Amino acid sequence: MSNLIQAAREQVSALTQSAYEKAAAQGLLPAGVEVKATVEIPKDVKNGDYASSFAMAGAKAMHMAPRQIAQILVEQMDLAGSYFERVEIAGPGFLNFFMGSKWYGEVLRDIEAEGLEYGKSDEGKGKKVMVEFVSANPTGPMHMGNARGGVLGDSLANVLQRAGFDTWKEFYVNDAGNQIHKFAESIHARYMQILLGEEHFEFPENGYHGDDIKELAQGFYEKYGDRYRDAPEEKWLADMSAYGLEVNIPKMKADLSRYQIEYDQWFFESELHNSGYVAETVGMLADKGWTYEKDGALWLNTTELLKKKFLAEGKTQEQVDKLDLKDDVLRRANGFYTYFAADIAYHRNKLDKRGFDLAINIWGADHHGHVARLQAALDGLGLDGSHRLVVVLMQLVNLLQDGKPVRMSKRSGKAIALHDLLDEVSVDAARYFFNSRAATSPVDFDLDLAVREDSENPVYYVQYAHARICSLVQRLAEEGAAVPAAAAVDAAVFTTPEEKALIKNLAQLPEEIHLAVRDYDPSHVNRYLIALAGDFHRFYNACYIRGEAPEILSARLKLADTVRLVVANCLGLIGVSAPEKM
């Protein structure tokens, strides 16, 4: 569980504090002063690898000039056995620390020891986390938004796992409710048009217009003929929805499997209704006094729940009073429960029945108004939804070709399906591009760029670095130069800026994983990969390996192979392959 960036930062603090205590014991500095100093990484390596503000932060309490304090600290500082070879005073009193070969060698040793698990931590402390993502309605093929949500959710779950969380991936199948009713009506209309002709049976205006509905109706007709021509509505609604789901859900699973996504569970909404769990959940809200009846329907007092939530989060009463808050129907006058009621029950199932410490959902940005309402409802059940439910809202995908937007319309049935996209570009390119930016930013998916085989294509650029190293290692092995163990490398030979920058970047991965977890943003991994590949290519072009003295060749070969390992590690986190040849 190495994090040598943080370890070096902590060592700067310890060395500085030790020097202060040594100076104070000799009467050179006032004793008993608590100094809250910062330790930063300077942008310019000329200012050292780390800079401490200790002298400036303690100047007022010590009644001394910062540079005078800094000078005393430098004179008392013992760097023996530390990561640092020297410390200098700069500017108004910064203490600039310069790393020595010990730190660079330790980075290589730690990565070798952890292998493809490098970057792991116990940050999550084994907490159970469910990541629910895609959860597309099973009424048609998955589209570009689902494609983005898929890689975001899958990669986030992988990153959380690496950070010590016990993660679970889930797809919530909305196989009940109004959209399934509309789905069955659409299949029925196309089925009747097959029997009677399109001009003799009107298609519902708000139905699903895609060609996939026509294909389902044709399949149903081929299986059952005209047996459902005069069937009662209750019969064809049930049987046609069941048939459509039986066809569509395996297709969804196949598309996602092709997209390198496998779930721990596919959870069906119908199970919540059939088991009585939705009714039980609504009953619990009623027992707690959060519901009321009006116009024959049962309502959730969302307004009061949200007021309570927002006040607890620090909003003023005046701010809350200005919000346009509305209550929600849980059970309609006809006795049917709403989607919101089922959603509350599903999340109660996650947090209460199955005991997940945290539920993370990947949703489209158009669902933003639903987030606080659902969290507040869970608060009303005593489940602390405001903290235990995290919703990552995902912006749109803009598909480009020839530099122009490719129009997509779900209502017209011309949405670009995931399986169509994967016929055009590789799974690697799709996954990399969709995870290339934070969920809060739209993604411009350039179809032309995604298939290019040059450095302009980011996934090609990163994969090429991996393949290039594999080729180098194989070529040198044929010449008798094997990759050495890290312990056999003399890190003192790493003297060029390119070598040092590359090793520093290798050490950065644990911090990037921490940031990805903190921000619920796995695109940190993509940006890290681009930076690492760039540093490797610069190193490779500036530092010869073949033909160098044995100790230099050996060290640089080990450095290159360590980069290979870390690139493969990170590509694995985002579900992209690491080819050995390109």
UniProtKB/TrEMBL annotation:
Per the record, its GO cellular-component terms are: cytoplasm
Chain segments annotated as transmembrane: none
Instruction: Quote the SMART domains the UniProt record gives.
Output: Arg_tRNA_synt_N, DALR_1
Which subcellular locations apply to this protein?
Cytoplasm
Reactions catalysed, semicolon-separated, are:
tRNA(Arg) + L-arginine + ATP = L-arginyl-tRNA(Arg) + AMP + diphosphate
Query: Which residue range or ranges hold the DALR anticodon binding domain?
Result: 462-582
Give all residue intervals belonging to the Arginyl tRNA synthetase N-terminal domain.
Answer: 6-99
One of this protein's Pfam families, by short name? DALR_1
Q: Kindly list the GO molecular function terms attached to this UniProt entry.
A: arginine-tRNA ligase activity; ATP binding
Q: Provide the primary localization.
A: cytoplasm
One of its GO biological process terms is:
arginyl-tRNA aminoacylation
Its Enzyme Commission number(s) read: 6.1.1.19
Q: Where is this motif: 'HIGH' region?
A: 136-146
Question: Which UniProt keywords are listed?
Answer: Aminoacyl-tRNA synthetase, ATP-binding, Cytoplasm, Ligase, Nucleotide-binding, Protein biosynthesis
Classify the source by domain of life.
Answer: Bacteria
HAMAP family listed in its UniProt record = Arg_tRNA_synth (MF_00123)
How the protein assembles, per its UniProt entry? Monomer.
PANTHER family the UniProt entry points to: ARGININE--TRNA LIGASE, CYTOPLASMIC, ARGINYL-TRNA SYNTHETASE
What does the sequence similarity comment in the record state about its family?
Belongs to the class-I aminoacyl-tRNA synthetase family.
**Name this polypeptide is given:** Arginine--tRNA ligase
